[in-house]
Amino acid sequence: MLSFYSQNRPKVHFAICPPPLPSKYGYFDAHATESAARTGLATSLDAFVVYLAYFSFLAAICKFELDTGCGKTWYKLLSREDSGVHPEWLELLEKSPIVDF
Question: For 56-74, how does the pLDDT look when each residue is reduced to its tens digit (9 = 90+)?
Fold first, then answer.
């Protein structure tokens, strides 16, 4: 969504980098001990919160900026066939508080 936003608003620049995916923190790794597994899970969950905040920010800028310019919203962007987002997942996301502004 950030690249789509940047294409439509080339004069607006964000100095942000996407956060690492929660899977980078050991969620899918095999761990030698239960303690290590719990640590990996807890760290991954913390990273998931950060990632959801990042996604919520992107949805907000697409909703409030692109809506006024060209009639596109984050939902329209992600519901395109070439986006790769499953329709059920998109529907659940739309109903979640993550994008409830």
Answer: 888 887 776 555 555 557 7
| All residues at 6 or more sequence positions from 11 whose CB lies less than 8 Å from its CB, including other chains | none
Contact by Cβ (8 Å): 39, 54: no
Domain assignment of residue 17, yes or no: no
CA distance 101 to 80: 22
pTM score: 0.67
Listed residue (54, 27, 56) closest to 43, CA to CA: 27
Structural domain span for residue 88:
2-9+22-99
Amino acid at 63: K
Query: Does residue 65 lie in a domain region?
Result: yes
